[in-house]
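User: Predict structure, ligand adenosine monophosphate.
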Amino acid sequence: MKIQIYNTLTHSKEEFIPIDKEKIKIYSCGPTVYSYAHIGNFRTYVFVDSLRRMFKYNGYNLEHVMNITDVGHLTSDADTGEDKMEKAARKEGKNPFEIADFYTKAFMEDMQKLNIDMPNIISKATDNIEEMLEMVKEIIDKGYAYETSKGIYFDVSKLDKYPVLSNNKVEGQEAGARIEVDPEKKNPYDFAIWIKAPENHIMKWDSPWGKSYPGWHLECSAIGRKFLGKHFDIHTGGVDHIPIHHENEIAQSKGANGIIPANYWMHCEFLLVDGGKMSKSLGNIYTLKELKEKGIEPLAYKLFCFSSHYRNKLNFTFDGVKAAQISLNRLREAYLKHKEGNNEIEESIIKSYENKFHEAINDDLNIPFALSIVWEVAKENNKSKDYAILLEKFDNVLGLDLINSEKYNKVDIEIPENVERLIEERKIARQEKNWVKSDEIRDKIKELGYAVKDTANGMEIEKIQ
Ligand code: AMP
Ligand code: ZN
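Assistant: Predicted complex:
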């Protein structure tokens, strides 16, 4: 079955044609490890997880590389400001290497909690200094860079086209608010590929230009080339990478290798909070740990991500993730019920579900639609092991760890105190067989936005959407 993916490079949905059908080569921009990754970051890694799993579902082998930015990532993408790693180190009284190690470990643990299918190679920027220096030298030799008192700058005017991904106009645009004016730069959009370190800078290496360190964009060009070669299939990141990081990565790779490194550039849209940007200064950044403290499992957050296509913005609300937690609990129950079912299901029915699911995931990773097929199967009245097996197959793409459903305890949803009180009153009414009162209380609870269901296991409560 054909695979269609959206390519930011051509601004269109295209049929995916691998360079080598034996192995698809993917590069993903990894995290900057100076603090805990937030749930917005993880939306992008959940997208990459689905992408990997979709290709595997289609029978492909993958060679997938991700970097860890553990050096020289300055405060803004535009290479201005203070080094985030060193700032965090000062704040926490550690050295930047310790900071990077600590948050890399935390990141990996969170990835595991999300049941993310990990890239084959994860490589730290600091393990690739030699490769980066080599690339800088090549770029200079080929005439694409020049030296200033601050470092080595890439000369964007030497390229046939810049930018290539975004619609930013370079010509006629004054160097102003977005780009720091540096009189030594030939063009405002020139960017540092190698930076001469000030005396007090901690992370620095010997180079032909003295103690210095790499510009942020360089690591992805160098690590990609080292492990995947000059030309590979897919490059991924978040949409914020389009205008600067990926433009500059393409520029450098074209400078060194003469070609755009990847055929397809895929970007995950942002997770918003209350319709706006997630930012530390607004205090609206959440981690997986913070969700867990509110009774939301990481896998429920993953399911929440599936409620929107990766190219659409997704608005985070606590009600939204709580609903996802309830849905996850239900999906696990439905799977377990099917597992115990003895009905036989016609092969044509199974095949039809499989086809619909497969078409959805191959259509630019339409996980929300694929999920609706999963729910159709889950809700089938004929309980059957065949359906359980089908759900397990679908879960190879979703990665919700359905096969271990029994292991997960239901995570309780936070219920307001007044609703709790009514629930207790209703329990007593029911013990007293006062059905009228029980129904009255159920209606009151409903008015407060919660639905009560009486099941064989007792009363179940859930928020009305
Ligand atoms: P960083 O650690 O800042 O380099 O970001 C790691 C990844 O998370 C990058 O691919 C970003 O594009 C992505 N990212 C950052 N913020 C968000 C967000 N709010 N929603 C989705 N992805 C994001
Ligand atoms: Zn990158």
